Amino acid sequence: MFKLSKLLPGVVFLLLAGPGFSQTLGNPDCETLLLVSGYNSDNVKIYDGCDGQFIRNLDDSGTVAGPQAIVEAPNGDLLVVSEKNHRVVRFDRQSLSFASVVVGDDPQTPQNESSGLLSPTGAAVGADGSLYVGSFSQNRVQRFNPDTGEDLGTFVAAQAGGVRGIDAGMAFGPDGNLNIPGFDSNSVIRVDSQSGAVLSSSIPAASGGLNAPRVVAFSPDNQRMLVSSWRSNQILEYAVSTGAFIGAFGNGVSRVSGIAFGPDNILYATSDQTNQIVRLNAANGSFIDTFIPAGSGGLNGATFIFVLTKQTEMSEPGIPQQFWLTGLGEISGNTIMIPNMRFTTGGAFGSDFDAQQIQRFSWGILEIIFTSCDSAEMSYSASAETSGLFASGSYPITRLLPNASGDSCLEQGFDNVTNGDWMSGTWAGIPDRSGEGFFIDAANNNQVAIAWFTYMALGYSFPEG
Fold it and tell me: CA-CA distance, 182 to 293, in Å (whole number)?
């Protein structure tokens, strides 16, 4: 079980990152990021999609071990299959930081949520919104709710169609059916999207010299299916409708593992042996260049490539944006009461800031009742005329960052503390309320200042001064 301190870097980053953070990574004029799973380096590497420069690791929480497939969840978040510790891990799309463990044991809870999934490698999201996860060791595909991780049962039975060693590159084809590469069976089975039954259009063992297939990718025109054939150092091409072998696709790539189509008629390919990413012509497979040099950013055991298209319209009207409230109040026993939370308008970043343009508005009431040294119940009522759409509500919060104040409370015992100093710190409603939280600063004479970073209410617009 991980300690909280080990998880904090990822959690804090998620809470404090502003909207659209991932859109600012790399070249601002570049529309894509390239995410590459490093199985041996236990992380996913993020590269600029235009110049190939290493940017940073995806996981800074130590949650991923042996990453394989990367897929996009229905809500836009990224799901990473973590083979060594038998998990599927969610990363927030906007901040590209750890959000939660979807399938497998969650290190943030005392419970063991293991689902029986062992050595997962491949993943795909179906038209029904379900998450389909393939196991290398169990030779089967399970179906999950991508939001809750609920196990919805076995979709493809163990060794159906003779498949063995399901690898990272499962994919739904243009016909809606699921294609599953079998590394040990040297085949790709195609199964019906409704029943999971194996179809006759599957690629039989060793067809066209197929040997240890790892990833399936479909051309942008949906006419061709490419398969990385690891042991034969080839990318092989098959007919989408029938699975019939067409031929080798371009020049061989040594121990080719991950392949993915990108923009501008590009096919990216990598190898878990050379740990470099090359670019091929997506039409004929001819070699273009070595786009990312071997081991860039510490890449080791490169198995899977995901092309992330940046979301360029994150500030459309009606999409909630982050919103700050501040207030001064008093501590009474185990309760904080802020009678008048406020917000400001008229500000601008950096040298454009003009204090004369700032306007202050009342918002409403905030109350926090502490139930232990590290837990509390927060309630609010947006009573001001300018904030009616925020209404009222409540939810539990917990101390996010252990500190000396909290340690003092624990040492004395919650029922024995005599002042509110121990309330100081960073609090949040994790894991259910990622992206918002509270900074509490207890002062002398039971005075307290609070900053609440949250979101705009849907449909709300700032009042005119």
Answer: 29
What's the rounded Cα separation, in Å, for the pair 279 and 264? 11
Tally Cβ neighbours within 10 Å of residue 367.
17
In the structure encoding, which two tokens stand for residue 155, read together? 């979709």
Q: What is the pTM of this model?
A: 0.66
Structure tokens at 167: 């690898």
Report, as ranges of residue numbers, the positions in the chain whose pLDDT lies below 50. 1-20, 313-319
339: left (phi over 0), alpha (psi -120 to 50) or beta: alpha
Express each pLDDT in 251-286 by its tens digit: 789 999 999 999 889 999 999 999 999 999 999 999
Cα–Cα distances (Å) from 347 to 22, 230, 340, 343, in that order, read 24, 56, 21, 11
Residue type (1 letter), 146: P
Which one, of 126, 85, 134, lies nearest residue 107 by Cα?
Answer: 85
CA 66, 71, 75, 76 torsion-angle sign: positive
Measured from the Cβ of residue 461, the count of other Cβ atoms closer than 10 Å reads 9
Question: Residue 156's beta-bridge partner residues?
Answer: 141
Q: Are strands 425-428 and 98-103 parallel, antiparallel or unpaired?
A: unpaired
| All structural domains of the chain | 4-309 (2.130.10.10), 322-455 (no CATH)
Q: Which two tokens stand for residue 269?
A: 């390919």
Strand order in the sheet with 131-135: 120-125, 131-135, 141-144, 151-156
Run of H or E residues at 16: helix 4-16
d(CA 318, CA 40): 43
Spatial CA neighbour of 274 closest among 446, 38, 94 = 38
CA atoms within 13 A on the CB side of 284: 3
